[in-house]
Fold:
Amino acid sequence: MCSHFPACPAAGSADREAAHVVSAHPDQGWSLLCNGVVLFEDTGLLLPDGTVVAPHRAPALA
Structure:
């Protein structure tokens, strides 16, 4: 799906959120990444195979 050089990370890789944004919809709270991942503003993900990844914000430092 990606035509960038270097290629964007695959949807199954740990750094999948580093892919380029193909379509941004901030008014609706989501963006489509080049690797087919839907990234939600709460940091949740929907992978191309239908797998849901729960929001994973970094913990606040004390």
